[in-house]
Design a protein that fits this description.
Layout: H1 2-29, H2 34-49, H3 67-72, H4 90-99, H5 108-115, E1 135-139, H6 151-155, E2 159-163, H7 172-175, E3 181-184, E4 197-200, H8 205-215, E5 239-240, H9 243-253, H10 263-274, E6 277-281, H11 301-304, H12 312-324, E7 328-331
Parallel strand pairs: 1-2, 1-6, 2-3, 3-4, 4-5, 6-7
The structure holds 2-acetamido-2-deoxy-beta-D-glucopyranose (4 copies).
Keywords: Disulfide bond, Glycoprotein, Glycosyltransferase, Golgi apparatus, Lipid metabolism, Membrane, Secreted, Signal-anchor, Transferase, Transmembrane, Transmembrane helix
EC number: 2.4.3.2, 2.4.3.4
Enzyme class: transferase
Length: about 325
Amino acid sequence: MFLPKQRKIRTFALLIGVITFTTFLFSYTFRDPSVDFFRHAFRLSDDFLSKGQCACPRCVAEAEDDPWFAERFNQSVHPLMTRENSVLSEETFKWWQWLQSERRPANFSEVVEELFRVIPDEVLYADAGPKRCRTCAVVGNSGNLKGAQYGALIDSFDFVVRMNQAPTTGFEEDVGAKTTHHLMYPESAKDLDNTTSLVLIPFKTLDLQWILSALTTGTIKHTYTRVPSRIKANKDKVLIYSPTFFKYVFDTWLEGHGRYPSTGFLSLMLAVHICDEVSVFGFGADQYGNWHHYWEENDLSGAFRHTGVHDGDHEYNVTLQLADKHKIKMFRGR
Ligand SMILES: *[C@@H]1O[C@H](CO)[C@@H](O)[C@H](O)[C@H]1NC(C)=O
Ligand SMILES: *[C@@H]1O[C@H](CO)[C@@H](O)[C@H](O)[C@H]1NC(C)=O
Ligand SMILES: *[C@@H]1O[C@H](CO)[C@@H](O)[C@H](O)[C@H]1NC(C)=O
Ligand SMILES: *[C@@H]1O[C@H](CO)[C@@H](O)[C@H](O)[C@H]1NC(C)=O
């Protein structure tokens, strides 16, 4: 009696399985709305697994599972400057002023006040929660993007973050055409279209005066070198990288390696703190070990790897560790 009964149950279970699978396959093939039920069910279980941190299958901010990440990740340090968080601690202000010291800096708080009369003073992207799934691509400038054909993929992300001189025109197939955020400093500035947020990384008070000038009167033409006196950018979308966050990245994530973090690393950290899912393109050397830009031919290894300003090896190490812990996804190009 025992064996046949078990066999009956097994047959029954098998039958149910086959029916479920066929239904699934059928509805998938014919785009039946019941697929959404399955998707929904899976998404719900993802939410359950991710403890409701975000609506993506995996959330960057889920820190509980990784002590290395949890020790470093601090979501209460806001990456972008507002009037309110622009008041720096004495320690931060000292460190920040030392980065590119000025002989006679203007009054910082007065400059900030003037600046926020021109650019918006809003707290952005602080809406992390169980309903949000913000996917981001951070696109570095490495030659490993040449011929990588990532264009369509990169353009499919909610945010696409680029930096410094990065062009897209003529390179769309490899790097995409969309840019939601472009990080730069006065000496690396370029014109943007009006749908892109210019994210200024300030290294000195003069940089804050420069962005104001470049958007209005065009009077500042020189910092420690010639800089564009005017810049095309939508002033309603200009954002300022917070010096407090800058120092947090340096102290906490780089543990003080190098003189200060590179634009690439600062961009990556911005994304890690405002996105739920982060994909990284164009970081590191190409397949031949060359460190050049995707729009240039020559090897620049002398130019930006061994200046001592940035600790490229350490930054890359931290980046690889983030990938190893599934906090970011690396696309290595060619
Ligand atoms: C996170 O940053 C806030 C604001 O700077 C600070 O008060 C807090 O101590 C930090 N938390 C940790 C765990 O370091
Ligand atoms: C900067 O300006 C503010 C407001 O005008 C003033 O209170 C402050 O003392 C000034 N700081 C310095 C260092 O001069
Ligand atoms: C953005 O640029 C386009 C084309 O140059 C223009 O038609 C549009 O009015 C601009 N929008 C804003 C908000 O400036
Ligand atoms: C990278 O990090 C690991 C783990 O912290 C460490 O053992 C290794 O020495 C680091 N390598 C470099 C090149 O800094």
